[in-house]
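Minutes, project check-in
Item: structure for the 307-residue chain
Input as provided by the requester:
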Amino acid sequence: MKRDFLHVSDLSKEEIHETLDLAAEVKARFKSRETYQPFAGQTMAMIFAKPSARTRISFETGFHRLGGHAIYLSPDDISIGKREAVKDIARVISRYNDLIMARLFKHGHILEMAQYADVPVINGLTDYNHPCQILADLFTIQEHKKRLNDLKIVYVGDGNNIVHSWLHLARRLPLHFVCACPEGYLPDEETVTATRAAGISRIEISHDPTAAVKGADIVYTDVWAPMGQKHEAAERAARFADFQVNSQLMAAAGDQARFMHCLPAERDVETTDAVMESETSIVFDQAENRMHAQNAIMLMVTGARTS
């Protein structure tokens, strides 16, 4: 059967660990400059309704180094759900390519694309979630913490697509996950409820970031006004003023805490330049690991394996 990757919870606990093992193996091959090309002769269509430097570079570079050819389709090339129906795009592109990666605004569009495509579809981001990012985050945490058990992850900021992906992960791996956000910027209620109902992880919503970060293994943040919400930037800056990840907040977390950000960062807004450049920051390892984690995801959904 065709395999898609639309949510972190599409993978079982065992498959998550298998994907992380694959990421480590492929990363080691890349670091040693070994030629490894399981996707030789294959093509991947990369559909971007929402532009991104990191997503394009990491997928295009990774697929190329694995032997394949990635085709970048900009918002002007394909106007998802506007110039042409999603189901038509999905079926046509499937006739040309072996794999589809799509970075879209509407989550419903990625679900529809997966429904009608005949080849695997990978969710490069939607307004609802960002599953590739969270597997890269998990891979990075494993490298630095040497464990995935008993982690306390504290996300500080808007209850956005990053939070929803962490919540989906919390249905597979036991976590203590805290979303510290202002009133009115909560994560999706149904997602929180479903994660709590799974009974695997401890889930908290807090409006006190200083209290929330105490004992955290990871303090994580993101921009306050992402693409599509820039018109709210001034209002959000006022509402989020007490939720900046600065040196004082990291001190409250403790010496064991590491800082993460999915990038791009607005320095001295949601976090400070000092925190970004501190020894606690693992942001750039996290950014690099997007490529390695995504390579593992591509290997998983296509059924290719290292050899």
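Outcome recorded: DSSP finds twelve helices and nine strands in the chain.
No further action items on this chain.
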